[in-house]
Amino acid sequence: MTEFVDLINSIDLKNSECLNSEPNQEITNILKEDEDTNFITSDTDEQLLVNIQFKQKVRVHSIIVRAEGDGTGPQMMKVFQNQFSFGFEEAQSLKPTHKFKLIKRAITEGKLIRFKMVRFSNVGSLHLFFENNLGGGKVTKIKQITVVGVPLETANISKIQSVEEKK
Amino acid sequence: MVLEACVILIDNSSHSRNGDFAPNRFLSQIDSISFIAGTKIQQNRVNTVGILSMSGRRPNLVLAPTNDVGQVLIATNKIQIEGKMDLISSIEIAQLSLKHRSNKEHAQRIVMFVASPLEEKKEDLEKIGSQLRKASISLDVVSFGETERNEEKLSALIDNANSGDNCHLLSVPTSSGIILADQIQGSGIFSSSSGGMGGDFGSGYGGDYGGGMVDPNVDPELAMVLQMSLEEERQRQSRLRQENSNENKNTNNETETNQQGQKEEGKKGMELEETEKELQNSNENENNEQGEEMDMFSQLEGLTEEEQMEYIMKMSLQEMDSKELEQLGINEDEDEKEKDPEVQNALQDEDLVDSILLSLPGVDPENEQITETIKNIKEEKENNEEKENDQKKEK
Question: Cβ–Cβ of B136/A24 closer than 8 Å?
């Protein structure tokens, strides 16, 4: 039985982004491990689109979404994978691989949201579309997103070192 | 330095035939577009600019985003004046074009010229503004010709698209003698983001090739490399000057020309330090010889034309003195011989030389040239021996 790990090291932060976040907020707020003091807050309306690029292909087992319980937490989450140039228009027109209706307990307590692994067995990029929030207000806030799974045995470019460095 | 992909929306509707902006609204837009594209690409060579014509049967992407200014100028010639402007569709097509930009790291920007009275509703404009904001596309609008009628709608559009002051509305009122491109240049919209390198397109290009120092804010890595090579050059120059002053005068030249040569080199050295443009060619892997050659040529560049001519004349009139020969990588025979004793010893051995020559294909040992060269080697060997004997006698 393979061990599932936090895929944080497989995430290509440089090519990941969050659309409709407030300016000056960075994707590392929610993807990097920190003390949850940094949020991503939605800007124009309550929708958020998180595009996560991986450095290598992975198998996604589950995901943890952490947010506040005050109604700003996301409710409907649509999951897409391996899309190119993914924006809000595509998010609203394409059929998602998975649809989840999040509940308050899941996001405040950081519970694992299980994916059907057979559908996510070869993921290069993961796209999370948070369509609305629990309170129905104009602002959605997310504290942390953790992706759990196992990386596939493909070449990990970041591990390539020059021979001299190894010596 | 902002890395940016920009699409410029041009209003080629019939309203642009109006001559209130000389020669007409359409041509002043073309003029402004070349200025804007030039500024953006000059700010950063990797920035891309595309052009979309808003009027006609449908909005048409005349030029896909490119970083070649020439293409921009060519493309503007292809646009015809026709029909009415369709703002919403144009923005959507521009948005699509930006979404599929080749380099995802580029920030997205739309620059829109509006010279016709808008028929779209204010709510629709607000909606498209929000859409742009969501997709993190910044919008600049240049409104001219119909400024009062469009003021309210365009302000609403900009307000909705604005997030953190990245969108601007420039309204140019109609009055005689106004040139649109000048107004745009003066407003500083298109140069503000980069820290003041824009605004003067012409000299900007000249400056690029002519070689002012690179702004450290603009490209810190390049600035650092240039500084390092500057330091190396200075050290090399000071070392050369020391060597020149220490060397004995040779038999070949008059002392005067020698001193003149030194002075010129000193002058060249100083000019080298003052003019830093040579260093744009600096290659970190230069070996010494190469460096000295380039040193020579870069020194030549540093002089004015007159001085260059003077220098060339002197060079052709006199035999080059050995210092300069060294710099060009040509060493006199004596030095060469002293450097490699093993080879010299081998050459002294006649039999060995003969056998080597025989083994070489295509060499006829009887050949005149070869026999002469061998003689020369022998003679010089004898000269060397004589010199050694003399020195011993002196001691």
Answer: no
Q: Is residue A167 part of a domain?
A: no
Indicate the pLDDT class of residue B9, thresholds 50, 70 and 90. Answer: very high
Q: How far off is chain A from B299, nearest CA to CA, in Å?
A: 38
- Comparing B321 with B367, the larger pLDDT belongs to B367
- Backbone region of residue A136 per phi and psi (left: phi > 0; alpha: psi in -120 to 50; beta: other values): left
Q: Do A20 and B130 touch (CB under 8 A)?
A: no
Residue A96 lies in a domain: yes
For residue B170, which of B151, B192, B156 has the smallest C-alpha distance? B151
Q: Which one of A19, A23, A45 has the shortest CB-CB distance to B135?
A: A19
Q: Do B134 and A23 touch (CB under 8 A)?
A: no
Which pLDDT tens digit goes with each residue over A53-67? 999 999 999 999 988
Tell me which chain B residues have a C-beta less than 8 angstroms from the C-beta of A22.
163
Task: With CA atoms as reference, report the closest residue to A47 among A132, A134, A104.
Answer: A132
Residue A147 phi/psi, 5-degree rounding, is -105, 130
- DSSP track, A66-127: E--SSS-SB-EEEEEES-SS--HHHHHHSPPSEEEE--HHHHHHT--EE--GGGGSSEEEEE
Whether A144 is in a domain gets the answer no
pLDDT tens-digit series, residues B317-330 = 775 555 555 555 55
DSSP three-state, residue B125: helix
Overall number of domains in chain A: 1
Domain harbouring A63, CATH code: 2.60.120.470
* Nearest CB to B130 within list A15, A24, A44: A44
A15 contacts B130? CB cut-off 8 A: no
The answer to whether position A99 is within a domain reads: yes
In angstroms, the separation between the Cα of residue B38 and the nearest Cα of chain A is 28
Structural domain for A87, as ranges: 5-106+119-139
Whole-prediction pTM: 0.60
CA gap B157, B150 in Å, rounded: 11
Residues of B in contact with A87 (CB under 8 A): 99, 135
Task: Please say whether the dihedral angle defined by the alpha carbons of residues B254, B255, B257 and B261, taken in this order, is positive or negative.
Answer: positive
Which of A15, A19, A24 is the closest to B134 by Cβ? A19
In tens, the pLDDT along A75-103 reads: 999 999 999 888 898 899 999 999 999 99
Residue in A closest to B138 by C-alpha = A23
